Amino acid sequence: MGAEKEQVYLAFDLGASSGRVILGRVGGDGQIRIEEVHRFPNGPVTSADGVFWDIDALFEAMLEGMSKVAAAGIAPRAVGVDTWGVDFALLDEAGELLERPRSYREPRNAGISRRVAAAIGPERLLERTGSMHQDHASLCQLLAVKEHTPELLGRARRLLFIPDLLNHWLCGAGSTDCTFASTSQMYDVVRREWAADILSELSLPSEILPPVQTGPAVVGALGRDIRRRTDLGEVPVVAGASHDTGAAFGICRDADLPGDEELVVISSGTWSILGIFVDEHLPPGTLDARRFGYEANPDGSLRIIRNLPGGWLIDRCREAWSAAGVDCSYGALISAARAAAGGSGASAVIDTEWEGFMNPPSMPEAIRRHCRQTDQPAPQTPGEFAQVIFASLAESYARSINELRGKTGRPLGSLYMIGGMSRNEYLNELTEQRAGVRVIVGPAEATAMGNVAVQMAAAGTAT
Ligand code: LFR
Hints:
Blueprint: E1 7-14, E2 18-26, E3 32-41, E4 45-47, E5 50-52, H1 55-71, E6 78-83, E7 88-91, H2 112-120, H3 122-129, H4 138-148, H5 150-155, E8 158-161, H6 162-171, E9 176-177, H7 178-181, E10 187-188, E11 193-194, H8 196-201, E12 212-213, E13 217-221, H9 224-230, E14 236-239, H10 244-250, E15 263-268, E16 271-278, E17 293-296, E18 302-309, H11 312-323, H12 330-340, H13 363-373, H14 382-408, E19 414-418, H15 425-435, E20 438-441, H16 446-459
Parallel strand pairs: 1-6, 6-14, 9-12, 15-19, 19-20
Antiparallel strand pairs: 1-2, 2-3, 4-5, 7-8, 10-11, 13-14, 15-16, 16-18, 17-18
Bound molecules: beta-L-fructofuranose (LFR).
């Protein structure tokens, strides 16, 4: 590999708990090497009006990361943004935000998915949009906008999903891609069109939705103001894997894995998205839309997914404990959880999808409350909490894998665990035991790698 052949791509990988600016270095061997240049916190911000994202701070942090890259004398071949799914911003005639984008953890969404499913019909909703029935789906959130602030929806001229808004600010683009559109419960991935009929039946506007592209594409170049503020050049902006999970699953399709068993993938960060690749929708009625849905990979192909809580529970506990001075490194918590295993305070299995875990003021207290309500011993020490959380996550993975085995008939013998939580070897062991699978640990940086892979496909690596 000649050093002169190296190409560098810049990935913005924004999760619901932290954001990162990452360099993807690609040498003559075509392998992507990931290097983090900037990391910043993210999280839902609760105010009297609801739960929002601090989108301005996120964008500033992206600019800061770009400035660092320019200061290091690096000229990226392209940039690309991926973020968590479903959330969007509404823009007025002048292109200004009508309000800060709301977080999917907004409590006003509670119960909307049941009403939407009842109005449209659960099977039809799944067939037309592919989406799991979840209160935080963009469709449900848009209905909440209409119900709570109709005047705001009346003034909306354009809806941009979070990565599209960031791209818009980077280069003026105004489109989305199929990976993100497929998280919205408003898009028919198979027909490649917005499900305008569904929106119209809920009296929601479809004309504000952006054009959708399938596959990697250059959507613009860094605008003059961005270039001035960061010292980067007119770098192409690539879209095609703007949903973080879509980016991560994109690199699994061709993963060279041992054995020939059917593979299930878990992309695990704040959420754990469990999925299998499929060629098309399964016959109507095969999947329970409350639990499974379809999302698009960067090339437009489909995966069946189940969206399960992931690191959210333990990370919210860590926040509470570190404020009280407890050593909250993952290493310390994993050792403490192992030590607690078998103790009575560590034996509860919680329903990780319980509504009370969505955004409680105190996660340890919410877990205690859930244990009391389900007549189980509540954990006391951080080690016991960690044990309960890890065992419950493993149990939720096992239940979903068993359900998928039952519904698809696939043997599903191996589990490809990717994303930041794949580093938790104790959780991997518990998952092997409970789900009866062999866990193959994949890249913790799968999302950023997928982002870079799409940039390479759009911007090319040839010199
Ligand atoms: C993971 C993820 C999931 C999505 C959830 C909420 O980061 O993108 O795929 O369902 O966030 O948007």
